Amino acid sequence: MAIFRGIHGMLKANTRGESMAKQIFDYQNGDEMKLAVLIKSAEVRVAKNGKKFIAFNFQDASGHISAKFWDATDADIEQFKPGEVVRLAGKRELYQGNPQVKIYNMRLATQEEGNDPAKYVESAPESADDMGEELNDFIFQITNANWNRIVRKLLGDHKQAFLTYPAAKALHHAFAGGLAFHTLSILRLAKSVAEQYSSVNRSLLYTGAILHDLGKTMELSGPVSTDYTIEGNLIGHIVLVDEAIVQVAGQLKIDIHGEDMMMLRHMVLAHHGLLEYGSPVRPELLEAQILHNLDELDAEINMMTGAYQHTEPGTFTERLFGMDNRRFYRPQNGQTYPDPK
Amino acid sequence: MAIFRGIHGMLKANTRGESMAKQIFDYQNGDEMKLAVLIKSAEVRVAKNGKKFIAFNFQDASGHISAKFWDATDADIEQFKPGEVVRLAGKRELYQGNPQVKIYNMRLATQEEGNDPAKYVESAPESADDMGEELNDFIFQITNANWNRIVRKLLGDHKQAFLTYPAAKALHHAFAGGLAFHTLSILRLAKSVAEQYSSVNRSLLYTGAILHDLGKTMELSGPVSTDYTIEGNLIGHIVLVDEAIVQVAGQLKIDIHGEDMMMLRHMVLAHHGLLEYGSPVRPELLEAQILHNLDELDAEINMMTGAYQHTEPGTFTERLFGMDNRRFYRPQNGQTYPDPK
Amino acid sequence: MAIFRGIHGMLKANTRGESMAKQIFDYQNGDEMKLAVLIKSAEVRVAKNGKKFIAFNFQDASGHISAKFWDATDADIEQFKPGEVVRLAGKRELYQGNPQVKIYNMRLATQEEGNDPAKYVESAPESADDMGEELNDFIFQITNANWNRIVRKLLGDHKQAFLTYPAAKALHHAFAGGLAFHTLSILRLAKSVAEQYSSVNRSLLYTGAILHDLGKTMELSGPVSTDYTIEGNLIGHIVLVDEAIVQVAGQLKIDIHGEDMMMLRHMVLAHHGLLEYGSPVRPELLEAQILHNLDELDAEINMMTGAYQHTEPGTFTERLFGMDNRRFYRPQNGQTYPDPK
Amino acid sequence: MAIFRGIHGMLKANTRGESMAKQIFDYQNGDEMKLAVLIKSAEVRVAKNGKKFIAFNFQDASGHISAKFWDATDADIEQFKPGEVVRLAGKRELYQGNPQVKIYNMRLATQEEGNDPAKYVESAPESADDMGEELNDFIFQITNANWNRIVRKLLGDHKQAFLTYPAAKALHHAFAGGLAFHTLSILRLAKSVAEQYSSVNRSLLYTGAILHDLGKTMELSGPVSTDYTIEGNLIGHIVLVDEAIVQVAGQLKIDIHGEDMMMLRHMVLAHHGLLEYGSPVRPELLEAQILHNLDELDAEINMMTGAYQHTEPGTFTERLFGMDNRRFYRPQNGQTYPDPK
Amino acid sequence: MAIFRGIHGMLKANTRGESMAKQIFDYQNGDEMKLAVLIKSAEVRVAKNGKKFIAFNFQDASGHISAKFWDATDADIEQFKPGEVVRLAGKRELYQGNPQVKIYNMRLATQEEGNDPAKYVESAPESADDMGEELNDFIFQITNANWNRIVRKLLGDHKQAFLTYPAAKALHHAFAGGLAFHTLSILRLAKSVAEQYSSVNRSLLYTGAILHDLGKTMELSGPVSTDYTIEGNLIGHIVLVDEAIVQVAGQLKIDIHGEDMMMLRHMVLAHHGLLEYGSPVRPELLEAQILHNLDELDAEINMMTGAYQHTEPGTFTERLFGMDNRRFYRPQNGQTYPDPK
Amino acid sequence: MAIFRGIHGMLKANTRGESMAKQIFDYQNGDEMKLAVLIKSAEVRVAKNGKKFIAFNFQDASGHISAKFWDATDADIEQFKPGEVVRLAGKRELYQGNPQVKIYNMRLATQEEGNDPAKYVESAPESADDMGEELNDFIFQITNANWNRIVRKLLGDHKQAFLTYPAAKALHHAFAGGLAFHTLSILRLAKSVAEQYSSVNRSLLYTGAILHDLGKTMELSGPVSTDYTIEGNLIGHIVLVDEAIVQVAGQLKIDIHGEDMMMLRHMVLAHHGLLEYGSPVRPELLEAQILHNLDELDAEINMMTGAYQHTEPGTFTERLFGMDNRRFYRPQNGQTYPDPK
């Protein structure tokens, strides 16, 4: 039985096509804006004139943008919290290379206007249905029975979170469904690698790829206003997924000390590649090393292409924290990227 | 009920006093030696004249010493394996500052002569009985019920290994009972610290100290001819003890996601202090930081005082790998160390 | 004769109990404040509206708090300098997680009101009398005559500074009397260690502990508005105390090249543990290594417990610079720390 | 016109199938050996008995193996030089985990016996013909005219070396044809990546992949007894290929300062990823980053699978220098690797 | 024929002596200022009151100074761009240790008033004529014909840029003519070194010194409002000068693979000394190592003496980014530096 | 009065010219040797056949060379100690690129034959007389009275050691008189720098250069069979010279806390440049930074040119430990180095 049957509609595709209303990145610099957005973060600060203001980060399915709310009253601060949907009027401007909104006015959206936060988060470019189906295909190819059963049990237990969580708070795939999308992207790369190099144990590589970041569902608080949980800080997603494997193996009466289980656990424990990056052991299996490389490759491509989307041809992106603060050049000619938003 | 009741005799005190026979370090340089020793390691190499020889490391309860067996036949190589007790005749010499045995002849000890390897390993300076009793006292002071039950269950399950295993293959406390002795030394330091700094959660610090290295019983192969297990390589003792905690919590119906359990797991996961040293998270609890410092302090004192024992006053020890290859000076005067052996 | 006889009253206990007046941390967020405080630091900046303001850091014996003084005139800037005691009226607020004062008005305290800066600095939790007495006990146990005489002479020469200086400008024990309190804390730990490990040369460890940071009295400017001296920058406290030992040895006709003097100098020179931390040599004596570890342990406990005091249970402290920018979790339950101020 | 037309037979397939004679790895430990091999390296040393011996590394198409030649005369040293083919009789033995030959006797092969060194080197698992054809297909897909012309001109100029050189002296793909095989493996990975991520400029990625290591043909001395050239040491393959691009662009009247040429040069200059690894600039183009990752991935898979081939199931490989001295575990079960030789 | 004949007047000496008008550093703190300056940089920001302001950096031949322009209109932003000369009225003030201008009013300079940006840049302390003549003397001493011809050709091709560009955007010798002045300073040091150490190949050292930074003329945009070019980012000045050498060698029919050409290229490629600093190879020639050391020595002296000029005796300079953020002490007495401006 | 008057003959020039006897490097590979040499080091080892041998390092004024003495008896080991002069007969050979002596026979030199070790050490290329005279000239130019007096007193106290000690045990200037020669080389460079950069305080730079390594006379055991003293290990030459300055200042009644004395002490304390290299503070004076650079420059040139002397043109030197294990290329043409010995 396929794990992901019946997830239809779990992750609504919040893409432009679905909605007639204009979204954040439908506006150009200088345009007057009038739309509903989600408050992603709201930080209260004191201006140099002694008055308070709120530094907002708004988002909808098209992306996110910052704004400053001057002379904020205590009532403003009280009502405009992260997770709220607001009706916003303002003007899009460009300062220091980054777009922001000059706020004219804003108020909380009413229930009638539709204030469901889930509709305003960025999300993966593929639907949960499609991703679930493709994942089923990969799981079907895991021929080791223990690995197959553990994958099915764990994905079954965390189905909803796995399909809706981001893969990280900020660095890469930081959008709803990002965890599943990142996992799937690695699986696709893994398939190519397994076909090209015949020594690779395909079942092991697929199992490791599917489970490697499942701990993110425990490390992160959820798809809206994502933050680290206390457990995420004190234990970390790498050990959290290992714990889940140990528990599930107990429920399924699988010997945790068998060679295949040691190999599986090694795959998830070693996937950060270096001790400095939080793996308690470095890869010591061919497939563990490959998983680490593909994880890195997909995350990096996601960070770079994401930055290119907001960069004019012939210029450099902003510095990317996850890429050692490098800037990347978007060529003038011969490019195959979509136009910057 | 005390965990360590009934362990009497488990770890026989292999100290000089028990035996009338002379031991390795009863001999001085130049002395003719005649005694029974355990083969700790035996490496076959080819001499530059093309013939094979065996590089031995012999040990008994007084310490260990190296030797070379020239022109080894295949029969010699076959019978003189690590873990065997042999009758040895030779001469103690000093080359390049280190003592070694010039072998006259050697043969396997017969059963009548007593060939029990356990009698020839170095062991902790305190008896298993005494250590077990003192550990019981510390466990008694753990007032959090979950922690107390988990400690009792885990120590109960691994009683024998915990009292007989070394704390490491080579670096520090590398002798039978070293794991328990190292644990107890940290607990004694922890007691002083908890008395001096009133904010310290004594139960947490004790629990962490007792469990922090329990995974060594899974990472290492045992007290004789100690090596790393495959599980030890692929998973490591830090995650192995975390797995044991998760399993035992399941058996005892303790919620693994409660704050106290997160704190306990953090204690063992973080005890190496730095990611580079294999901890998947750095200490983020006062007690976790203290445990790391005390673990390091006790291990370092053990390495330094061990080296001083083989160093003449007014000279430097050999370079200590575990101390960043530093040499330590043993003063001529005012010292309080015992004479070098 | 005891060094610290007659220091009675040198370091007045500035604790809450002594004074009927309310102190900074007697006020809660939202309270109107009216009290006398010391200006710890005062930085003149230009607001974005082009006018000047002063960023103050006020302190009294209960701790320190920041504040902004808007639209500062040249007269304001002239009179409100670090080291001045002022009468302050304002309101305690909380922005971005940190308490600060919204200033209503402030003026210099008159002599009648009591404008002695020494009354407004945070100070060690033990009185100078008590600390002096306990130090005498430790000195009494230094059995090497040269070390004993040097300790007595140096502490005698720097008695006042030693008992009133902080141990650092900002990192740890940054309060009046912090140097003596930090020294004493290390001595108490040293006593436990010397009792547990019989090889330790107790006299040497105590002598090193007492002198290791004495150079701070030359490196730092004093207990009020502490800064580094030029000598502190160009030479550093490690070499400054070594210089003092060399000079005093000369006065006492002690041979600086004797083994005991080399050992003592090595203790203070090596106490930072690593060359990167400013020690010109790494520890090469058992006692030097232990001193380094205990110095670190006490400093770290002080930084962590200090931060816990301003942290709500169930949350993390701010990032601690001296702890590699880590945040520490203050548990909800089972804690033994006092309530946060 | 395809570059690689007419290269037929340039790289003879030296595989087992072609020859009826037994090769090095057709013998098991303990077997008497009698075969022709190539001297890969020959180092003269002095044994501890004062006599000279030669430490050989022999090779044929099946792999390489070491051996010691005792009591070497000046005549032996003179004639048995790297690059010579010799007739060897001896016995295969296993010491310290590595196979070696115990030499009974050896002499230079005569011309009649066939002493062509090229027949005794390990070589890529695919024929030069096949590789050339597949490369042509990739070149065909480079749609930027400048890049296409430069690739054709450079490969045309270095055709023979490109198809016969190894990719490195020792680390990875260190066999005849290794450079072309490594290049092709990256191209195949690049194809999968370009299909999966639509933003990738396929022409640029292919061009960079083909040229990135072409400088190896100038840095290394050739496929037999490979060593670094002086130019390889003083300038390095990264700048050597850049120089070749600059020269060829001049010949083809292509403006070296056009954006496409800057991008191409950046691809090859940045392909080591980090300055520490010898790239004068870090990747600042999406495709440059991907090229670096795929280069690393293919090299690492080659090193790991190569080591697995000489490792028994259930044990670890030797430490791999190019993988940060890690050892890799070859599982007992579920493996898909061929049997170890 | 001398390269630098006929450059007379190319770099006008913009020193105080030439002009009767007061310059930036002729004013003291508190002085009313009235003068023409060049806009070096102009960054538009939003003040906390929501209005825009411009953060200016003004410069003339005496140095540079910052200023804030409050409540900037779109017209202000449009006209006050980097590279424009403006008439400025304001007051010199000192905040946070650094001088800045409080702007009263400013307007673009008219053509009659003289708005040639080149007159307002800081420049080398020696005239282009003098520097060119001294460079000719050094070139005359390069006895290797290939090196001599390449130097003459390259300097001839880039004469104007070489004499007018700065040596860096900000770190050291960041003034017009800085590149030539830095080159000449190294040559003078090189001459002393070559005289003192007779093994040094003087021709090689001079050639390397002259060419090592010539790539800066391609990496940087020019002497006014200097920034990095795209080519500078993607390829870097080290490889850009290597490219220029390769091209010129082709034009002059010099064999690029001769030993002398490998040595010359190695000189420029290795001059950053470490791979981490962007050199693709580390120095492996005596002269390459010396060039690296002298390059560093001259750059560091320039950074330190530049900072001393704005530092009061008895205090420390600001932290110098190029000197690992160290501050340097300017002594009270015995100094030989000019008074601070 | 000049310090170095009357040192005539202290350091006899042991150069070839003085002696009619052949020296080590007068022999070519293959030559039969017959000469007197000094035993620089003698390490007893055990050969793989179980017998002892001595690994010698012989030296005379022309350099040093290694040799192995097989089948050494206890009498051999007893008499052939470091520091003895022996009559040696053997043959010069070349193995693995390094020259060594094949020993035919050797015996202790008699008193009549001349067994003064001082005659067989390598020594500086200039005589003590000449160096002393030039040093006097430099001291004469130190215009600060305190610095001048301290230099005179310290050099006066350590005159003999200063002129005969090496500058290091092995790395650079490791020959008799090396300390003075290295000091003088730095002073000559310092003179050039002070002339080129007018801000440099010449007196300070000279004083620092003269004293910076004076602590080597306490850190090292002497010019023959040089090793580190215990004081050298535990305190280090950097602090040892600081101690000497402090003591001498006391004797001369110079205030150690005056600015000039702080500056002088900073010069010597900071001269290693980095904390990692053992300086307790980093340079924070212009002259301290320059001293560090010149110290490094002269030491590096000495290491490189020393290695070139034993390297054939067109090949690379051995790896130089003090140059990060780099090898340096000795060009075929255009070189100005003397022929290799």
UniProtKB/TrEMBL annotation, chains A, B, C, D, E, F:
Source superkingdom:
Bacteria
Domain (HD/PDEase): residue spans on this chain: 175-309
GO BP, sorted A to Z: rRNA 3'-end processing
- Which InterPro entries has this protein been placed in? HD/PDEase_dom, HD_domain, HDIG_dom, NA-bd_OB-fold, NA-bd_OB_tRNA, YhaM_exoribonuc/phosphodiest
Q: Name one GO molecular function term.
A: exonuclease activity
- Sorted UniProt keywords: Exonuclease, Hydrolase, Nuclease
What name does the UniProt record give this protein? HD-superfamily hydrolase
Originating organism:
Lacticaseibacillus nasuensis JCM 17158
